[in-house]
Design brief:
The complex is a heterodimer of chains A (about 230) and B (about 220).
Chain A lengths: L3 H11 L10 H7 L3 H24 L9 H23 L1 H11 L6 H11 L4 H31 L1 E2 L3 H5 L8 E2 L8 H4 L1 H27 L14
Antiparallel strand pairs in A: 1-2
Helix pairs in contact in A: 1-7, 3-4, 3-5, 3-6, 3-7, 4-5, 4-6, 7-10
Chain B lengths: L2 H4 L3 H45 L13 E6 L2 E10 L2 E13 L2 E10 L4 E8 L51 H19 L1 H4 L23
Antiparallel strand pairs in B: 1-2, 2-3, 3-4, 4-5
Family (chain A): Belongs to the NqrDE/RnfAE family.
Subcellular location (chain A): Cell inner membrane; Endomembrane system
EC number (chain A): 7.-.-.-
Chain lengths: ~230, ~220
Amino acid sequence: MTDYRRLAQDGLWSNNMVFAQMLALCPVMAVTSTATNGLGMGLATLFVLLGANMIISTLRHFISPAIRIPVYIVIIATLVTLTDMLINAFAYELYKVLGLFIALIVVNCAILGRAEAFASKNTLWDSIVDSLMMGIGLTWALVIIGGVREVIGSGTLFANAHLLLGAPFAFLEITVIPDYRGFLIMVLPPGGFIAVGFLLVAKRWIDRRVEQRKRRPVSLPEPVSQSSS
Amino acid sequence: MNLAVMRERLDYQSLLLGVVVMVTCALLALAYQLTREPIQQALADDMRQSFSQVLPDHLYDNDLLDHAGQIEAPWGSLTYYQASLAGDISAVVFPMQASGYAGKIEMLVAIKANGELSGVRVLVHQETPGLGDKIEVARDPWITYFTGKSLHNPLPTGWAVKKDGGEFDQFTGATITPRAIVAEIKRALLFFEAEQPTLLYPVRLPDAVGSVTAQQGVEEHD
């Protein structure tokens, strides 16, 4: 019996793609200048991750270990291209914002990592749960990083959210600091590294507090061991 | 035969890889066919939307995408779009490319038949956020100051940023970007002046009779 609580906890927190595995940093730095961009990239990656995990898990008995990497890459690249075409055709405004970065999902080793470490060894259903948890974990991480950079860098939050989610979500767009003159470095790539660094500190600090509190009754089980590229 | 044994055979592996590639290629070809029309539609809508930003509505009543012409410019082949009102050519729109601080700045320059700028907009750029991106109309009205300007207002010597002795503002901390844009607009205006007869000659004659109307749009005052 699969431990779904463990899968959820791993994906969302303790083995989070960005904050624990430290994967996917290339798109993270490039895209997360605003919370909206982070959300869009997170959702696009979630979609590709779900598709890749499902296909690879279904085919796992047929794929010879010797040629598994090229097969995975072909499958992932196809899914990314499909996503790219669909967003271009049916959400053009979003494509103008995210277009350049969607192709980056191919080189996102996190997806290949999940295919290799999880989908190739587990059932379809488990792989779906794993990809959803990992994808949601990535999405919230990107939104948080984007939000921190956006508030400090431009003084707004969720700017242009209506392009991503449609007009009804325009209420998300908040000007946090009116008449803000901007803090350029947070919008540029170095700001991404700074934001990720501080957020990592915050996560470690929370983990340590939780551990100290739990140490007396019973020690926390070790997270599932991961071998990812 | 046992799948585990099969998987180790070279012919099985080659076949598998071939099948995977064929299936994915078929999928991509199908998706390409399905999305080609909507993508072209989205691009065309986007172009029309951009045109409406550089041309006021009362200046044209045609679909500019149907009135595109090709001309050899000193910097290469150029596609231009003619705007017309009741059959008279009222303005010409050029896509131009300035060399900015961080790559190409793609923009649209619309010039009215009398040589005045109807509007300029930046479509795509990679300038520094917070400094050079003030060329976007969403961030700063700077780009709208060109509306109504021509080679007579200011005179060609004034077509530079203030730092270079011209008439146009640069931004604090960013001179290269505005300088590139001012130079590119000036280049478009000079090209328009030189090639006016060709540019204002209808690329597509109106369906009705009366193709002589092209000359009426030319009202140079020099």
